[in-house]
Amino acid sequence: MTGLRKWALAGALALGSAGAFAQSYPTKQITMIVPFAAGGPTDVIARIVSDHMSKTLGQPIIIENVGGAGGTTGSTRAAKAAPDGYTIMMGHMGTHGAAPGLYPNIAYNPQTDFEPVGLAAGTPILIVARKDFPAKDLKEFMAYVKANEAKVNNADAGPGSVSNITCILLHDMLKVNPVTIPYQGTGPLLNDLVSGKIDYACDQIVNLTPQLKAGTIKAYAVAMPARAKALPDVPTSTEGGLPDYQVSAWNAIFAPKGTPKDMVAKLNDALVKALADPATKGKLEDLGGIVPDAQGASSAALAELVKRENARWIPLLKSKVKQ
Ligand code: ASP
What we know:
Blueprint: H1 3-24, E1 30-34, H2 41-57, E2 61-65, H3 72-80, E3 87-92, H4 93-98, E4 114-130, H5 138-147, E5 153-156, H6 162-174, E6 179-182, H7 186-194, E7 200-204, H8 205-214, E8 217-222, H9 237-240, E9 248-256, H10 261-276, H11 278-286, H12 299-320
Parallel strand pairs: 1-2, 1-3, 5-6
Antiparallel strand pairs: 3-9, 4-7, 4-8, 4-9
The protein binds aspartic acid.
């Protein structure tokens, strides 16, 4: 056999075995990194969706919570993980849309260091407060925060997180700059909101619906043009007197760059099946999540979403926050 033919044959065999390998994927458990503490919105969505995905894939999906630095610590870990289909992550509008606008030395590029798998859920943003916060509606809330800027406690999941950037928007509109306490996620933050240790936060609906229904915290507005079906009593920001405050977040699955295309396709297929499953979809919608259809949950749609969100958030945050 000529040297050339030998190489060609070796190449064909290597390709053949990689193909066969991907066909049997997954053969062991998959780790899904959640870059925030357990119990928060990203964690809740990850657990609901991965539960059904693991049935389609025939292997467990284990959630690993890696909090810190507004979700960028866990996202960096995922970006640098082996691209073998066994480490994926649930990112969101903060980690993959906005964070580069707040971290000049961020260790990953949301557009080039990941393979987008698909969008899991849209999550409208609400302004919420401890239940005895002295403001009965959004107008009073705005007036109170302006008058007591030095005294009020805002909290978030760290710079670049959704709760951070959406309250940056709010504060920019109110022209205030109150103290903001960073948490590892809005799950633990919510506990402190319920117990009254902090005053208010901007957070994703899926984290808030159960507590709002139980009356342990209160909501001033949902930052959407229409009221959320899951929380029909919460007025929109327009009804409340702050019509320019319109922001809805999203959570989506990413794999490290270089994860073979057919593995990404299998993960996407499992995600789409999870979102079409009435029980899984119902759980997300009961919490106020907006569930995409197959086209909205495609890898291509997520690649476009990340590009659009980077173009929207990065210059905005660079202009508003001193670096
Ligand atoms: N996703 C939340 C945020 O960015 C944090 C969390 O999931 O706990 O604020």
